């Protein structure tokens, strides 16, 4: 029956941020959605992106943000959401997820049969000896500049020395505690003049505005350090190998893997 139908909008990122972080769609999309929903024609608005859970009602629209499936949390607990549809509409149940303990104070570097654990303490020592530091930031898929901060860390090439580095036809796979991963080519790790001009040095950042990972929930983190302090989407496109990075997901920010757990060198032709 027509009266049983629900008008629902689903987006990845919301048009509002109840936590004050500004993690929304672009300004034009925010204004359009706000205007459209204020007309009272939408029953439910659902989104993710913000790592938290939030429900409210605006202009008779039931709004839901559910983004606690992985990653560091803005608020609350890791969760998924069970949605029930019946003749009265949609109802939501937040279901907490038990997350396993992870040792964030150790990363693993792998190549072939070689597997080397490196403690965070040892990485900090390397950072003190031959670290790279400076202001950097990235552009997300919505065209917003994010992550601007003072980063200090170790070149990825320095970390890979523990397993003999990588060759031109090798691929580097960097994975985080929650399973997110990104693939990189030789020139990302050992940049020539062109790659340096686009991406700068490629580092494993160990501090964020001088905070260590005791107080910085996104670290250790991959960071590109271009001279202008802004790794934008054009830089990302220009430094992504075929089948990697921008060619799979058009966001410079996706390359900045958070809470890095493993660096794996895959040998042979890409």
Q: Give the terminus-to-terminus CA distance.
A: 54 Å
Write the H/E string, N to C: EHEEEEEEEHEEHEEHHEEHE
Number of strands: 15
Query: What is the top-level CATH class of the largest domain?
Result: Alpha Beta
Mean pLDDT, all residues: 92
Number of helices: 6
At the fourth level of CATH, the homologous superfamily of the largest domain is Oxidoreductase, molybdopterin-binding domain
Task: Give the CATH architecture of the largest domain.
Answer: Alpha-Beta Complex
The structural class is alpha+beta
| Percent in helix | 10-25%
Q: How much β-strand is present in the residues?
A: 35-45%
Overall number of domains? 2
Q: What gyration radius follows from the Cα positions, in whole Å?
A: 21 Å
Report strand order across the widest sheet.
Answer: 8-7-15-11-12
The residue ranges in which pLDDT falls below 50 over 5 or more consecutive positions are none
User: Looking at the structure, what is the overall shape?
Assistant: elongated
Oligomer: single chain
Biggest beta sheet attributes: 5 strands, mixed
Give the gist of this structure:
This protein is α+β, with helices and mostly antiparallel strands.
Walk me through the topology.
Layout: E1 8-10, H1 27-38, E2 44-47, E3 53-58, E4 61-66, E5 79-86, E6 89-96, E7 106-111, E8 114-119, H2 120-130, E9 132-139, E10 145-155, H3 156-160, E11 171-176, E12 181-184, H4 186-189, H5 193-199, E13 201-208, E14 221-225, H6 233-238, E15 260-266
Parallel strand pairs: 1-2, 2-4, 7-15
Antiparallel strand pairs: 3-4, 5-6, 7-8, 9-10, 10-13, 11-12, 11-15, 13-14
């Amino acid at each position: 029956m027509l009266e049983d139908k629900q008008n629902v909008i689903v987006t990845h990122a919301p048009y509002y941020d109840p936590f004050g972080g500004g993690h929304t769609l672009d300004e034009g999309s925010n204004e359009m959605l706000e205007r459209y929903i204020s007309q009272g024609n939408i029953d439910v608005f659902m989104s993710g992106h913000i790592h938290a859970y939030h429900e409210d009602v605006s202009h008779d629209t039931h709004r839901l943000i559910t983004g606690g499936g992985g990653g560091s949390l803005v608020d609350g607990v890791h969760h998924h959401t069970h949605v029930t549809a019946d003749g009265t509409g949609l109802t939501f149940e937040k279901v907490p997820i038990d997350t396993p303990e992870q040792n964030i104070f150790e990363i693993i570097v792998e190549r072939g049969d070689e597997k080397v654990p490196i403690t965070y303490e040892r990485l900090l020592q390397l950072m003190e000896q031959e670290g790279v530091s400076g202001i950097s930031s990235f552009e997300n898929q919505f065209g917003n500049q994010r992550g601007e901060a003072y980063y200090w860390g170790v070149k990825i090439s320095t970390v890979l020395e523990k397993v003999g580095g990588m060759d031109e036809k090798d691929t580097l796979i960097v994975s985080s505690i929650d399973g997110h991963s990104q693939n990189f080519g030789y020139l990302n790790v050992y940049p020539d003049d062109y790659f340096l001009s686009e991406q700068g040095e490629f580092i494993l950042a160990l501090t964020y505005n001088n905070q260590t990972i005791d107080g910085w929930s996104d670290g250790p983190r991959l960071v590109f350090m271009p001279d202008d302090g802004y790794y934008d989407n054009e830089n990302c496109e220009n430094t992504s190998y075929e089948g990697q990075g921008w060619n799979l997901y058009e966001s410079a920010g996706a390359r900045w893997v958070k809470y890095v757990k493993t660096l794996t060198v895959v040998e042979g032709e890409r």
